[in-house]
């Protein structure tokens, strides 16, 4: 059965992204396209798919060589975060710093995970909601890209959004409505599909989108999922680019 819980731990997530899904790259070969422009394209696509977005997550991650604590302190200073604190999670030392989303300002969480005597894995997550200023989020996204690149981390990123759908439709019908909204704007080719009593999920090849991932024999650019809550009957909609990496 498809596992909908994709956030069990920092290191587990890193392994899912790096090993299970292989590499992320520019789907159209537009290497000169800025990361901000790519994000704006994905925002436009998700806005067209759902009526109201309630949650946005951008996740940057990559491996680095050096001292994890020093890297965490460097990133925190450049991103305007508090001094990192050392915590223990999933059997690893993690240096963490974060600020919560507030009003129009996005939240930022930075984790530098110790992976060896001279290695670390860094995850920088940007979060927002319907009140977050999209231009400010895009600028912050580009700042993270530059900061990681300058510190020697070859990082990749993914984008996920969530919102609510109609409560009078099944998950499959809700997903079909979203496909209908986007099919006139994008060349969507379903590659992987999953359904059960409360969940419908489809991964697509969409050549127009700028980020992609290799999954088995498929190249994926977007995943859409709908999960119907047993208690309320409401539908939770999730879009992921190139795939969903949060709970749906």
TrEMBL record:
Highest taxon, organism lineage: Bacteria
InterPro entries hit by this protein: DUF1779 (IPR014794), YwmB-like_sf (IPR036209)
Family annotation (SUPFAM superfamilies): YwmB-like
Protein name (record): TATA-box binding protein
Native source species: Paenibacillus xylanilyticus
């Amino acid at each position: 059965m498809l596992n909908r819980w994709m956030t069990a731990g920092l290191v587990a997530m890193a392994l899912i992204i790096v090993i299970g899904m292989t590499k992320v790259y520019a789907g159209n070969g537009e290497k000169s396209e800025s990361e901000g422009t790519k994000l704006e394209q994905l925002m436009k696509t998700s806005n067209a798919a759902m009526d109201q977005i309630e949650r946005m997550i951008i996740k940057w991650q990559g491996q680095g060589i050096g001292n994890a604590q020093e890297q965490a302190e460097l990133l925190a200073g450049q991103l305007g975060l508090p001094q990192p604190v050392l915590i223990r999670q999933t059997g690893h030392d993690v240096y963490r710093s974060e600020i919560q989303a507030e009003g129009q300002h996005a939240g930022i969480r930075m984790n530098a995970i110790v992976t060896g005597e001279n290695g670390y894995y860094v995850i920088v997550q940007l979060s927002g909601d319907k009140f977050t200023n999209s231009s400010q989020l895009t600028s912050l996204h580009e700042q993270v890209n530059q900061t990681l690149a300058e510190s020697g981390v070859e990082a990749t990123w993914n984008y996920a959004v969530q919102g609510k759908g109609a409560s009078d439709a099944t998950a499959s019908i809700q997903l079909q409505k979203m496909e209908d909204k986007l099919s006139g704007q994008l060349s969507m080719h379903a590659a992987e599909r999953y359904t059960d009593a409360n969940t419908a999920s489809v991964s697509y090849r969409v050549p127009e989108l700028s980020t992609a991932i290799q999954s088995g024999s498929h190249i994926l650019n977007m995943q859409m999922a709908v999960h119907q809550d047993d208690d309320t009957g409401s539908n939770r909609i999730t879009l992921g680019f190139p795939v969903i990496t949060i709970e749906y």
